[in-house]
């Protein structure tokens, strides 16, 4: 039962507390009466479980220039593809670096503005949740900062801009756990389908912003490095910014597999029977990709399979005392690479299956909230997991002769956020699907209860698919 102050929020708020400008503009944009969160922004003093009380309703509204937000919401994002990132960065010059900076300078506030507007459309009682409100404040601060950055004209301007970007990336490491906790606490205040739609949209947008921001930081780092010669074409075995031109599927699976097996030994003990991970199929399959995205997806799928096999084998040990292996099959088609991960871990129970892809529904909600509370920062990378106090470094050295350079760069991003390997957050599968679909791929699971699970990850092989950004129509239903 919600507090009466929340149930009667529309009656308690007096017109004198509204922002007339926000009211009129929001009504024009949406074509209907806006939710209270779109016209009234209280100074939030979170209490209890993030549910508003009467004090919130009479607090001083925080004024913001609503016209600035509307101007940026009116702009459309300009999606890019992996191929565009590769071609643009392959022959890097000062002119191209400045052009990249100005693309990021205008694109970040545009994409953030759309997500702020999405949050303003949420029911008042949802957006005033403690965690959701903190995300809102982070987003508005970032939007206000980036929209004020003037045109980048020199390398010195770019260096200052990169410092701003790096600071915002660090500050926003809190976003995923805050969103996940907010969605769980707001379960019942909105339909599960609407909450999941909102979560998928905001996470996909978050990935898109970090891709273009980290790509520009990486290009700047390359341009400023001692070994780089402006205008020189990079080798096809290289990284171009964050894009690894030739991800070797077998190498990624095997290295993620070793890391996951180490995590399992840490969680179950050094003498635990760990399943073997076998890789077959088209072992030479390669494709361009953001390596950390692929590592996260494959790593989380393997983690789930290894855990299921170990626990199922302990309940039903075989005569040879070894758990059944996990089979990974690689299939290279003309336009796609498919990675199938098959385990014999007993499958997924019928009680859990309906909530497999949901951020806000499912069993053990209280435990998930408690676990998320122990993860203040989260970059959603496999490398942030710790084993015996050390970061998982085994998963980052796939760059051949260039692996060490990537290790150094990747470590700087992941060392800011760490989490225990045995802490189950309940968001790995839906977040993995968001990652997969971002570059026009897909992730599907097929479960045989009592036997095992087959996971199918499909990846675009050519890198010519634009990033899949949320459309306005996708959020109008929320």
UniProtKB/TrEMBL annotation:
It holds the Pfam family HATPase_c. Residues 79-243 form the Branched-chain alpha-ketoacid dehydrogenase kinase/Pyruvate dehydrogenase kinase N-terminal domain. Residues 398-417 are annotated as: Disordered. InterPro entries: AK/P_DHK_N_sf, BCDHK/PDK_N, BCKD/PDK, HATPase_C_sf, HATPase_dom. Residues 292-371 form the Histidine kinase/HSP90-like ATPase domain. Its EC number is 2.7.11.-. It is found in: Mitochondrion matrix. One of its GO terms (biological process) is regulation of glucose metabolic process. GO terms for cellular component: mitochondrial matrix. The keyword Translocase does not apply. GO terms for molecular function: ATP binding; pyruvate dehydrogenase (acetyl-transferring) kinase activity. Keywords: ATP-binding, Kinase, Mitochondrion, Nucleotide-binding, Transferase. Belongs to the PDK/BCKDK protein kinase family. This is Protein-serine/threonine kinase. It comes from Xylaria flabelliformis. The lineage of its organism: Eukaryota, Fungi, Dikarya, Ascomycota, Pezizomycotina.
């Amino acid at each position: 039962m919600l507090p009466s102050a929340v149930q009667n929020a529309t009656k308690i708020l007096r017109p004198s507390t509204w922002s007339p400008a926000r009211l009129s503009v929001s009504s024009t944009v949406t074509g209907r009466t806006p939710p209270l969160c779109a016209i009234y922004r209280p100074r939030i003093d979170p209490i209890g479980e993030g549910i508003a009380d009467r004090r919130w309703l009479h607090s001083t509204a925080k004024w913001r220039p609503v016209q600035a937000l509307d101007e940026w919401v009116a702009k459309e994002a300009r999606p890019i593809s992996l191929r565009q990132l590769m071609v643009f960065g392959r022959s890097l010059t000062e002119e191209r670096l400045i052009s990249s900076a100005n693309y990021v300078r205008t694109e970040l506030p545009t994409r953030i503005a759309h997500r702020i507007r999405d949050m303003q459309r949420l029911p008042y009682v949802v957006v005033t949740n403690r965690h959701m409100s903190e995300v809102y404040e982070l987003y508005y601060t970032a939007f206000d900062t980036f929209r004020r950055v003037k045109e980048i004209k020199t390398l010195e301007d770019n260096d200052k801009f990169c410092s701003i970007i790096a600071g915002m990336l660090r500050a926003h490491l809190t976003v995923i756990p805050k969103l996940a906790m907010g969605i769980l606490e707001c379960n019942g205040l909105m339909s599960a389908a609407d909450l999941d739609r909102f979560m998928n949209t905001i996470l996909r947008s978050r990935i898109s912003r970090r891709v273009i921001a980290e790509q520009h930081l990486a290009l700047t780092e390359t341009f400023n490095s001692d070994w780089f010669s402006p205008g020189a074409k990079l080798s096809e075995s290289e990284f171009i910014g964050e894009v690894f031109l030739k991800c070797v599927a077998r190498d990624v699976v095997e290295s993620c597999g070793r890391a996951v097996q180490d995590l399992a030994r840490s969680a179950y003990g050094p003498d635990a029977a760990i399943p073997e991970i076998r890789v077959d199929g088209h072992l030479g399959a390669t494709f361009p990709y953001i390596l950390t995205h692929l590592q996260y997806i494959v790593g989380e799928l393997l983690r789930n399979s290894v855990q299921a096999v170990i626990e199922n084998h302990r309940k039903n040990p075989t005569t040879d005392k070894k758990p059944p292996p996990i089979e990974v099959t690689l299939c290279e088609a003309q336009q796609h690479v498919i990675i199938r991960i098959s385990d014999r871990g007993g499958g997924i129970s019928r009680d859990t299956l309906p909530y497999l892809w949901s951020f806000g529904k499912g069993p053990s909600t209280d435990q998930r909230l408690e676990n998320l509370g122990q993860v203040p920062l989260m970059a959603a990378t496999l490398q942030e997991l710790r084993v015996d106090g050390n970061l998982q470094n085994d998963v980052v050295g796939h760059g051949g002769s260039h692996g060490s350079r990537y290790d150094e760069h990747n470590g700087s991003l992941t060392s800011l956020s760490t989490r225990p390997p045995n802490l189950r957050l309940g968001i790995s599968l839906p977040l993995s699907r968001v990652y997969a679909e971002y570059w026009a791929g897909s992730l599907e699971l097929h479960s045989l209860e009592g036997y095992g699970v087959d996971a199918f990850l499909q990846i675009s092989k050519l890198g010519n698919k634009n990033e899949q950004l949320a459309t306005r129509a996708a959020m109008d239903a929320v």
